[in-house]
## 1
Amino acid sequence: MLDFYSQQIANLASEGNLRHIPADTSSRPGVTDLSTNDYLGLGSDRKLREEFYDSCDVADIPMSSTASRLLSSSQKYYSALEDRLAELYGKDILLFNSGYHANTGLIAAIASAPDTFVIADRLVHASIIDGIVLSKCRFTRFPHNDFDRLHQLLEKNAGVYRHILVIVESVYSMDGDRADIGRLIELKRRYDNVMLYVDEAHAFGVEGPMGLGMVAAHDSAGEVDVTVGTFGKACSSMGAFCAVSPILKKFILNRARSFIFSTALPPVTAAWSLYVINKIVDMDQQRAHLHSLGHRLADGINALLPSGKVLPSHIAPIIVGSPVKAVELSTRLLEQHFKVLPIRVPTVPPGTDRLRVSLSASLTSDDVDRFIHTLSSVLS
């Protein structure tokens, strides 16, 4: 009965694509971690946690919601977080348990409208693809960040379908490059039946005014219909949210299965997220430092690997083109006290296997320079 699964495991191993949960290196002295999404360095900030404990009686905050949000009795913790985000974004907010829950639930619900066509960037996250599939609507994908091709698809389909949903990420998780939000808004304005959905998972806390993301920097008129942010990265917490119109919030609350049928986030997590967000909005200095590190890292990688242009970002790919090579390079770097994990198929397209370097504001310029020096040594 298990023969099929055994064979699949063997196939993955022979291809160099068999995954394992990586070993915990947090207790290993001298290891610089370039693998996490802790972009502002808050996940390792003991002082911040202690300040949070001192700011409230944690023992009085429930550790579990014990039920779905629609049944939970701990609403004040969620409402406080939603109200603060609504104040910052000027839109209605609804919380989800994770970015994956948000994208699968939101897209499946929104794209369930009759005669809907979805157009998504080729490199959007797996959760977005799963949401599209769950909706059972017709969809296509355009080449990554090719907005001329997106324009062609809109021209071709705007008169055919009643609703068109365009989906992108503002910062892409595997390459660190960015969508042109201004261009997307300009394209949307040409059509009355187009909605725009932007996943800001890797931008929230890091990009835009007060760290509110790239949509906040470009969309003063509120023309992006759905903005998704997550708490599990720069915010060093757990969960996600969408910023939408009042009508969409009411609809999603009644139709998003991942919201309706999931036990809500622990109230203590919502309280922590709120505390951190109130700190993040004032962390312009950390964001500027992170951006500076991104430029330094890109310059170093591009000098070593001029064939592949890496853009300045808090995420940088080192593309080696082979899963075996990616694993080997990761192992050799760890031996030199740098944790950088391999990213392989199906997370990235075939032939683009890589190491994904993820920066944190807790790092120094010297950390980046040491990494580039070590990478140069290992590659040679």
## 2
Amino acid sequence: MPLFTRALASSWRSLIGWSLGVIAALSLYLPLFASIGGNGQMKDLLASLPPELITSLGYDQISTGSGYTQATYFGLLGFALLMIAATAWGTAAIAGDEETGSLELTLAHGVGRVQVVLERTLAVLVRLAWLGALSCLMVFLLNDSAGLGIDPANIPGMGAAFVGLGLLTATSSIAVGALTGRRAFATAAGAGVAVVGYALNALANQSADLDAMHNFSPYHWAYGASPLANGADWGGLGLLYGLAAVLIAVAAVGLSRRDLVN
């Protein structure tokens, strides 16, 4: 798989940078659990805030190690890091190369368009999986010292949800990039999935009357069942990875049926 290996080889520097960001974020936030999530004064402060704001931020379970880790890292800072990386990698996979003319040169060497989509998507998935695995490893290593009390058996389920959310974001960029050949559109698609998904979840948390909005939020598919506390949510994972698979198929068909943008 020459395109796959080339994509990985050309992105190892950026992957190191994202990895250092993951390590720094978790090393900073998780050891603070005892002084933030488990602090009585913090609980009093949260109790004084509007309940809608607390649930929108996911801080209603911050007093537990699993809730704190999900709210501060997987649902906030780590979420932002992974979505930015996923959007950037997804955009570069097809639309970025097409706008620079590199994609046309690649295809001139007898490489099929479907092959381009599949191998470059696989390269994106491997990078996202690495960041997800690294996040899980850090949580596992800091679990005891930070006093989180997370069941280690639940950590892989959270990692799968984390990576699945990133993959859905990335494949949205890949699909739109394959259909349009425009970097701006591809970036907007990936960012839109992340931002709209987060916003829908936050709005749905405001009131029971808006609860149905959770059904349309990829963010809720990933985290709504609190996988760090309860284990893998197979229904949510099915939605994330299933829709990502559909978008990969759309990208393959779309790129195969149109002329490249000059």
## 3
Amino acid sequence: MNDLHSNQTTNMANSERRATRVFLNNIDSYSSKNIAQFLSSCVVGASLGEGEEEDKHDASSDEPCFQIVGTVANKDAKQESFASEQYWSLSRDELLQCLMRCDVIVYNITEHTDLIDEATWAISALHSEIGHFESPKIFILLSPILTWAMTKPPDPDDPDIPLTEEDYKKRRPHPNFKEHTSTERLVLKLGKTKKSILGTYIVTSGLQYGMGENMFHFFFQTAWLGKLSSVPIFGPGTNNIPAVHVHDLARVVQKIIDHKPKTHYFIAVDDSKSTFEDIVKAIASAVGPGQTEKVLKEDASGNITETELLYLSVNLRIESVFIKERLNINLDFESGIVDNIVRVVEEFKQTRKLLPIKICLLGPPAVGKSTVAEELCKYYKLNHVTVDEAVSEKIRQLEELLERNEKTAENEELLSAAEEKLKAIKNSMLQNGGQLDNQQIIHIIMEKLNSMPCRNQGFVLDGYPKTYSQANELFQDENMEVEDGRATEPKYNKVMIPDCENVAVVEKIIKTVGRPMNYGLSPEEMEEEKKRKEHERHQQLKQEEAENKLRETMENDKFASLLEEWNRNTAEVEKQEHELLEARSVPMRHYLMKYVMPTVVQGLVDCCKVKPDDPVDFLAEHLFRSNPDD
């Protein structure tokens, strides 16, 4: 039966619905972000209806949705569109004021252990301010499944009998998660004093998956990139991992907010009984080539953290009973990650924007198609597909399959088919001078293009098809849908690029195709890129220094040349001025020599003869008396 307050529906019907303010911590982290984003699109009280399919907000409806108020751990975190208020590094007083303005407080300690102290403080502070509440509040603590890690099965004689919420008082945490359990107990204890004013709930979450992944991200990324020949399984992989889709966890939170149930402890896990090995194999098959390999847990360092390894090593058979019986929740991913792997992979690609780029590169022989294809594959991280390599790879795969396996009743049909296929390929090559016939090539190329690496990352098909009929046969079913029919491939952008240099071709193709839709650089590639940029920077500095020196030398040479020319021109001008002055002074000299100098000379001669006391006065008097003009 439903475990709800009897007057809840009546109260909701009689009172006007208003926007409910929901606080979540660290909304820039995987779990809280997805929960907050889900709640922001849910209508307040929508889950109170019986048998509703989906509680998402209709844009044409006036019904209020949950208003999200959240904190972020990263100072530079962008403003989330789903959050009406977003804060960073609040003081305890500021945080308390923020919590007091909210109707629901959700503290998520499933990802970060450093938030346990803050969550403990938050519930204690709210409880101490309970007399100042303007309206009732709900406090929900999201706790990790490792608070049950050391719990013994309910029946030692039958370990397959699962644990349920009814066993929560018997739960035993992993030694590293004792503080989580203490926080759970405190939350439940403080919620018992005035339940009508401050209701407290615990939701213990299985390992969360979906929406781009978090705990299983390493395995998705490894399978996607394909740099390792197989996806590692750390340890034996036989442990049962309780898991839940992050949106199903958000549905549980939504139901608790709307229903305010009398039960205060819930476990949120799906119904799957998948082992660690089952999950990794499903990921490897759906994302990559499907190969897995068991490695020692000690070899996990450098790939995943110790805390992540603890989560992945949990071994529990546990069921969610209360969320079905008392909250009437039908989980969207109820059967688990393995059964829903196609949908989960599609979410992974869409959330992380890992969309395949498919390029068919054609052109006449010896124009550099392969060089261009290699550059595009390097830039976009695509698979380079050529006919010769695809045929060689297919032959090698068939030969390895036949060599590694002996015929048994189970694999006889598979090995016989492989043997016939290999024989047909080799016979065709013998009959056609080492070349395959058209149908064989098309079949091999189609098989290669439909492989997981090519379907996920994309490809550059180099130099094939060569005819219209080959292209029509190869690509006629290209716009296929994935298995569940949810996602379709984007349309092809048909572009013809005229003949030009390879570098220009690559640049034009990149401009046409757009930015890469794949993973960023690996740590090694980032380090290499850093070194390359540093080298380029040094080279640029050296080049600039050399250019500056050359420019300075040229300027000095130019200045010296100009100064020499200036001096030369100045000397020439002075010479010309002297010559002009000489030429203009000739008449004056002639006049002086004819009319002035004889009288002056005679005066000087007479002065020498007479030897007057004042020679100057004598000469002046002589010149005055002897003036030829008188």
